[in-house]
Amino acid sequence: MGLDSKSVKPSEIRADYETMLTRKTILEKTYKSAEKEAQNMQQKLNNVEQYLGKDISKEQATKHTPRHVGI
Fold first, then answer.
1. Nearest one of 28, 22, 25, 33 to 69, comparing CA atoms
2. Rounded Cα distance, 62 and 71, in Å
């Protein structure tokens, strides 16, 4: 595969893996927080529209449907 087994250092690979794992955990928390905030804001928008007697949310829901990205 083009790798020189003598130049591969397991300790560096472990350190890189731990760094990536930490970053993944932080990004997952950020994503979940943003998704929750978006749902909260959508609910508030729906409440305001309902209070004002408008039904715009159905049109906007099709335009701004949140995408779920697997991490």
1. 28
2. 24
User: Distances in Å between the alpha carbon of 56 and those of 30, 38, 43, 50, 53?
Assistant: 29, 17, 13, 9, 9
The residue with tokens 């978006």 is 38
CA distance 15 to 10: 9
Tens digit of each residue's pLDDT (9 = 90 or more) over 4-47: 777 888 999 999 999 999 999 999 999 999 999 999 999 999 99
Q: Strand ranges (DSSP E) for 1-71?
A: none
